[in-house]
Amino acid sequence: MLAYTPEIAASTAQLYQKVSKVIPEIEWPFHAPYIAEINRLKRERDAVILAHNYQTPEIYHGVADIVGDSLQLAHEAANTKASIIIMAGVYFMAETAKLLNPDKTVLIPDKLAGCSLADSITGADVRLLRQKYPGVPVVTYVNSSVDVKAESDICITSGNAVRVVESLGVPRVICLPDEYLSNYIAKHTKVEIISWKGHCEVHERFTAQELRDYRVSNPGAIILAHPECPPDVLLEADFVGSTFRMSQYVKDNKPAKVIMITECSMSDNVAVENPDVEFVRPCNLCPHMKRITLPKILECLQGGGTEVTIAPELAARARLAVERMLAVPHG
Ligand code: 13P
Ligand code: SF4
């Protein structure tokens, strides 16, 4: 463990003031030395830290250079000039960053940071689906392995799914692997959606009854939910959107009280940026996102971590699916 010196206390005092509502004071002496050392070393090593909205506040507010949802991180990974990319997120996010930056070093602080959606389907499954539905395009959520992306025509994220599906101009698509996101897309387009039974282990645990109970105990609260939740849960929500859209909703509408039906760190991170909004915090933890910690990020900058490598032929096919998605014009 690194030492919490008076100099580090002074240099991180302003940051602590900002996050004090979501990080207990007793924890700061542990986080602060790592934050100081990571921020020093990342400049020295020309590294950029990308962090998903589900990362803990000490990572999100303390060391990340770029934060966002999966779509924003994909865009930023495509634009970064730094020579090393550290992905504070899960493995498929690091793979996407590598696809878009084949000549850069992409590091993930913990290679076991997986995803139940990505694990729900293989490249062989996609090939079988293509045999079953010849000629039907395969549209794949970025929450998928590089093998699955390589078998796909185009990728989507929760932030652009309907727009990308409609950009294909076809009557029917195969949409993988999230059944609930597919269901949500189907409700917002005339395109027929053939889905797969993959689920996010974090969002599938919310229930409609739970949301009804929150409404009763928090009259007037606005409920925001992620489209990876089951359809009956989404029906109970006031707004459905990607993590970026949920955060934007709070920023734009400043509801007095809000409930975010998603991963736990999301409310913490958005609460820091919206001190006047009261957050009720029912949430489920993503055990994969939580594998990423400040000490593991520091290890990446000290020569550790896991470098993401992808065989060139596989990467070329998977990259095409991601680049096609990024090329779809904004609505
Ligand atoms: P978005 O941030 O793209 O909404 O995705 C949520 C998620 O579960 C990522 O793992
Ligand atoms: Fe995967 Fe769900 Fe965790 Fe996102 S929150 S990484 S979709 S398991």
The CATH class name of the largest domain reads Alpha Beta
> How many distinct domains?
3
Unreliable spans are none
Per DSSP, the total helix count is 16
Q: Helix and strand succession?
A: HHHEHEHEHEHEHEHEHEHEHEHEHEHEH
Summarize the structure.
With 331 residues, the protein is α/β, with parallel strands linked by helices. It is 44% helix and 15% strand. The protein folds into 3 domains: 6-114 and 289-307, Rossmann fold (3-Layer(aba) Sandwich); 118-200, Rossmann fold (3-Layer(aba) Sandwich); 203-280, NadA-like (Rossmann fold, 3-Layer(aba) Sandwich), CATH 3.40.50.
What descriptors fit this protein?
Rossmann fold, alpha/beta, 331 residues, single chain, 5-stranded mixed beta sheet, globular, binds 1,3-dihydroxyacetonephosphate
